[in-house]
């Protein structure tokens, strides 16, 4: 279908170009206007068909975006599938180039540029298709399978239940492809460090606990999820029981052998894994890391430049923290203040179910307080609702500290701010306020939901990922909360600075690990000495940066650029500046590279000055 659409677009363009000219000036002007309208309609159709073709090869993303037509399938994890996806992107990029950029309206010119940038990035990244770790303690198929089934796969009909069962049966084949991929990578010298394996083996083994895998008397997480979803169909008891029985059989026939094969492979790889942690250990590792930095920051900053920006901002934030020390009357060094906030019981909720619920309720209260203030600073807000939840038990040990799960565009699933409460000593109360603004409102929930809800913007653009923009916005909103009058408690303001400090230190340790050959222990020591975070938090963070080269640098680079552009707008516009206007120009086009964001803000400034 896509190739036919491309051919049709090309034919329309050719016919438009060959149409005889009119004799009168008015007729010529009318023809030119009509052709401009035609080319804008044609490129809009191209964008739509291009995204449909991409989603046809990615059933999980399609389902997250509301298309459930392939909700009985898993993606293919083979080189043949990767080759097919790459060729599709190349063909689409070639078709894009047939459009006359200057004939497009302003919105379509931006869409053209975003399409071109993302396609060229995908093609450049194909060189590194076997780099990275598809199974690690932060993410991977071992937790991705149950997470998708439990949080995305809806069961509103018997067909949906049958699709769920088909997916359970398909896990063995999917895991077979994953195991082959891990073996290929290991043969290339691309293998996760030794510390990763206990985490992922445990997470994999946890999924095989409960019925029908053992006689513990409790359902496994997937059987419990399936049983609950089928119960929601309100079927006759015999029909519901038959579906649950089918799911149980599929768990034994598909999930069990699939996970057992993965666990066996992971144990084999663990025996040969090393403690070398940085990307520098890979073949052409320096070039791979340079591309990772380019992808994540959307800049051409070198590893050394990123490292130095980190060092400068660590010093700036330490100075601001010393001012808070004076405000609360603490006598001692900054490191002693860190230890005070790290170990003081008054800064943590109890590590009990009641304590965890208190944490979640405070997060909800903070977000409600922010909601009340939002109209003064935003005119562009999302329709999608948002909830605060604790990370599910089965993935607590492998999930991050906190994260956001995007809402379904069709409204069937809210945006979710997840807090990992496996150990409350990792979740200081003084950081909760900044965390709530970052992950929830007006952070990721606003940015991602607004992007998904944009009207007249192609779907590919609404879901495009530019980490420096997305995470830069999240970090920016932490400081925005202070501008809005929040952080009345100086310890909460210290928590805000602590989280910004964390992101500044990331620039130092990420480049240290992957470019300067720092060991895991060196990086842990740096974070421990320069931040107030507890040791467990520090270790988990360094292990995250190790398995996700470059990703951690995006936050601070993006935030600094947004702050720089806001200050520029304030300086040049004076009384004409408004937070609401600035936030609208930042968010109204979805995620964009930082260079395009700067162009958009400059254009907004110019329009208000004229």
Structural commentary:
The protein has 610 residues and is an all-alpha fold. It has three domains: 2-56 and 78-128; 141-275, no CATH class; 288-562, no CATH class. The chain has 24 helices and three strands. A three-stranded mixed β-sheet has the order 1-3-2, covered by helices on one side. α1 (2-18) packs antiparallel against α2 (25-56) and α18 (467-483) packs across α22. Residues 1-22 have low confidence and may be disordered.
Shape: globular
Structural class: mainly alpha
Could you estimate the helical fraction of the residues in percent?
55-70%
Percent of residues in β-strands: under 5%
Instruction: Measure the end-to-end span.
Output: 47 Å
Query: Rounded to an integer, what's the Rg over CA atoms?
Result: 26 Å
Taken in chain order, the helices and strands follow as HHHHHHHHHHHHHHEEEHHHHHHHHHH
What is the β-strand count? 3
Are there runs of 5+ residues with pLDDT below 50, and where? 1-22
How would you characterize the largest beta sheet? 3 strands, mixed
How many structural domains can be distinguished in the coordinates? 3
Q: Give average pLDDT, whole number.
A: 93
The largest beta-sheet arranges its strands as 1-3-2
Number of helices: 24
